[in-house]
Amino acid sequence: MISINTERFGPVIVMHLHGTLTREVLKELEDAWTDEVDAGPEVIGLDFRDVAQIDSICINHIFKMARTAEENNITLVIFDVFESLKKIFEVIKLNKIIPVMTRQQFEKVHLKGL
User: Fold this and answer.
1) Looking at CB atoms within 10 Å, which of 17, 41, 74, 108 has the fewest?
2) Which of these, 61, 73, 63, lies nearest to 29 by C-alpha position?
3) pTM surpassing 0.85?
4) Are 41 and 74 contacting, i.e. CB atoms less than 8 angstroms apart?
């Protein structure tokens, strides 16, 4: 199960994800993602603070989200990631495609002055 809460800060959208990212919740994630991309932000930050697990199908979907963000001139950032997930992201080189930051780094870079 997943819960997705969204906040808007001018041109920046933060999607707070709560729960486990599995194929069972992929449709909900895709719908929320599409809604936010359609809003035309400059930046979308995925808050992983409350995500302890992610399956391979959702990891693949995050690569797809990165492509969609690039096609729409949106900067996609993942922040506040558990160390175990951060290591997985490093192994699969997701961090080479999408910046993975701490919450403080995200706020300093993308929310400063908003």
Assistant:
1) 108
2) 61
3) yes
4) yes
Amino acid letter for position 89: F
pLDDT digits (tens, 9 = 90+) for 45-77: 999 999 989 999 999 999 999 999 999 999 999
Neighbours of 76 (CB within 10 A): 21
The residue among 98, 28, 92 whose CA lies nearest residue 68 is 98
Give the three-state DSSP class for 88: helix
Any alpha helices (H) in the chain, and if so which ranges?
26-38, 56-71, 83-91, 103-106
**Structure tokens belonging to residue 56:** 């391979």
* Token pair in block for residue 68: 């969609």
